Amino acid sequence: MDATKDSATAQAAGLLAQLDMDKLAQLAQRIDLPALLNAASQMNEGQLKQLARTLSPASKERDLPAPHGDFYGLMDMLSERQREIAARVRHFMETEVAPIMNEYWSRDEFPRQLIPKMRELNLMREIWNDDGTRTPDASVTEGIIIMEMCRVDVSTAVFFGVHAGLALASVALGGDERQRAELLPPMLDLDVIGAFGLTEPEGGSQVSQGLRTTARRDGDSWILNGEKKWIGNSTFSDITVIWARDEADQQVKGFVVRAGTPGFEVEKIQGKVALRIVENGHIRLQNCRVPESDRLQQATSFRTTADVLRLTRAGVAWQGVGCAMGAYELALSYAQTREQFGKKIGAFQLIQNHLVHMLGNVTAMQMLCLRLSQMEDAGTMRDQHAALAKVFTAARCRETVALARESFGGNGILLEYGVAKHFCDTEAIYSYEGTNEINTLVVGRAITGLSAFV
Ligand SMILES: Cc1cc2nc3c(=O)[nH]c(=O)nc-3n(C[C@H](O)[C@H](O)[C@H](O)COP(=O)(O)OP(=O)(O)OC[C@H]3O[C@@H](n4cnc5c(N)ncnc54)[C@H](O)[C@@H]3O)c2cc1C
């Protein structure tokens, strides 16, 4: 007997051993059993194996696809290097962040021990060069990093985005050669952690016009006064970029305020129901003296602030992609294991409808953001392109995480099942870096030529 026959015989013997003879007799009364056996005897090796798999009680579990939210092969559209970076980030998120994130969520605290581990990942230099220029494919690469982070935990991506995006870009775009040479290498190595202080208690969406924090020149230094709200990382950052209005010319300028500077106080914002792992600070500046050498020399008007925000907006759109992708994968996995009425809930049509709706959203978001980032890397992206992506992904993410949470029933509101965190975090994505209303107005103005801003 050859090896092929051996294998088929062993499988057939295994199947026969499992047969219940009473049930077989019942079956023989309803179907032509000899004809069926005759048909089976004509089967080739592949068909026999398939039959064995189908009849095996464990087959349903074994044949289920691994949950994954990359239905159209986003990864296949990336370079080898970008795929390697994505794998590196995924491994870090699953082995270092996932095991501790619920504990830190409950404690309302950022796990600072992750910083040296993130340093080993060396992600900054995949996006930035030491001189403050961007790598040729920075936007796509950064987007993939953010997506992979948010798939597990949005807060980790916000820590990364505030430091590697907002703070680093402020120095890169607003600093002169000396400032870039001093600050960028340690920021790229995560030896110096940055924060970005623009929003104020009374100035959110209207901050470009209503910024109240003041800067007054006094000899070789500046005196800053005012308040900043929501400033991510600022409770432990080494530097915080503070945007303040120069009393003399009324222009908005950027200042690097170092931790411990007298007159610079940070209070951690408590009681958030989203992004609880991010530490957001309420900053009070009272006669805070900053040397002229720490005024960002190229940031002489709000135009630089807007340039920084433009550079980071695509990244926020990618946050929505990752958050929705993570929620979808959790829901798919749950649907394949949770049983009700004697069936996997994934076998119910209504649950499949949820899953397909989610997957459609995730896939559309991925393709939209990939194209947006390709445009950014090519230098053709405009404000309205990034604004549309932010509007679309934040809204689709909100819809997706709600369907995912719903698919978990009551377990969907328990932290341990994961989806609740995505559900809550989406609310922050929806509102920062330009609320959905403001980004909608940006797109509306671009497509109609008519401004609806008040
Ligand atoms: C978790 C988190 C992290 C953050 N991190 C930072 C950070 O690190 N640094 C920083 O500087 N800021 C940060 N922010 C601030 C964030 O950018 C602001 O929350 C955002 O710009 C919105 O401002 P606001 O919250 O004051 O809302 P408001 O501007 O008060 O808006 C309230 C509502 O009114 C709507 N609205 C306002 N104006 C208009 C209009 N003209 N037309 C139609 N609707 C309008 C808004 O869309 C919104 O729905 C963060 C915020 C959050 C929640």
TrEMBL record:
Cofactor list: FAD
Domain Acyl-CoA oxidase/dehydrogenase middle: 195-288
Domain called Acyl-CoA dehydrogenase/oxidase C-terminal: residue spans: 305-447
Residues in Acyl-CoA dehydrogenase/oxidase N-terminal domain copies: 79-189
Protein's GO biological process: fatty acid beta-oxidation
Membrane-crossing residue ranges in chain numbering: none
Organism lineage string: Bacteria, Thermotogati, Deinococcota, Deinococci, Deinococcales
Keywords in alphabetical order: FAD, Flavoprotein, Oxidoreductase
Entry-linked InterPro entries: ACX4-like, Acyl-CoA_DH_CS, Acyl-CoA_Oxase/DH_mid-dom, Acyl-CoA_Oxase/DH_mid-dom_sf, AcylCo_DH-like_C, AcylCo_DH/oxidase_C, AcylCoA_DH/ox_N, AcylCoA_DH/ox_N_sf
Name of protein: Glutaryl-CoA dehydrogenase
Entry similarity comment: Belongs to the acyl-CoA dehydrogenase family.
Any one Gene Ontology molecular-function term assigned to this protein's record: flavin adenine dinucleotide binding
Domain of life: Bacteria
